[in-house]
Amino acid sequence: MQYDALTKTLLHLLSDNGFHSGTELASRLGISRTAVWKAVRALQYRGIEIAALPGKGYRVTQPVELLSETVIQSSLSPSAGRLLGGLDICDEIDSTNTHLMRLAAKGAPSGAVCLAETQTAGKGRIGRSWLSPLGANIYLSVLWRFDDHSLVAGLSLAVGVAVIRALDRMGIIGVGLKWPNDILWEDRKLGGILLEVAGEAHGGCAVIVGLGLNRYIPPVVGRGIDQAWVDLATVAGASAPSRNRLAASILSELLPLLNDYRHTGLGPYLAEWRRYHHLTGREVVVRQGDAETAGTVADVTGEGLLVVVCKDGKRREFASGDVRLRIAG
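^ that's the sequence the OP posted. Answer follows.
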């Protein structure tokens, strides 16, 4: 779904840090004051924080930066620009991953990218949902095709390294990783990676790499998140990078990595991933279905399996799959 011109214009008008009266907005938009009120209510319903003060009018309390294909493409590195297989920016969609999976079935090429202003059915791991307030964060998916399913092993770990590199280029430091696919800052979730794979008749596979990254979580949305979280607005304050520059930085790291991964595998990224991993040496609980294993995180294998030293001294290896991992206590 794409928003109409009125909705986008209203968002821009209200995002300049000033108040605008209903009369002014009605005049500039060519609609009635009642229509302005309804449009404002519709934006609030979608998660936009709008202050309304008698005698002053309306103002978006957290300015909204809508995504721009022109800005993103012009900000890509030359190598990423060459690997981009198409950029699809959606105003409102069920899920960027689901959208690209549909395009993959129709023959979309490697490097096809989908970004969204908001998702109505954003995906997390193991069937969890991903809350997606309008115009606030990064909701991004990339399609890449591999000739062999086995080449995908450990890919989510390498993607985590790419995300941290991109954030570092934006001046965001202190970010870490939690196996297999969480982006952390001080043990709070800053983002998450979701890989979905579809096999193909010729033996290869289409991989959708999904990333949700918190740039700004409105308080009303934050209250609905059932785990410790953080956003870039908290981490970096006024220095938090713009959504368009952030998306371009991520794609500039991610597209070349995906292109190289079929030749390199996880190996070249492991040492860097280990430096960023927040859980090494810490006590954790690993849950598979109804079974729980307690122990200390020792390492990851060359294939990306988590190595845990259990209470009885035995070493066990876990694939991501349907595993849930939490810090003990």
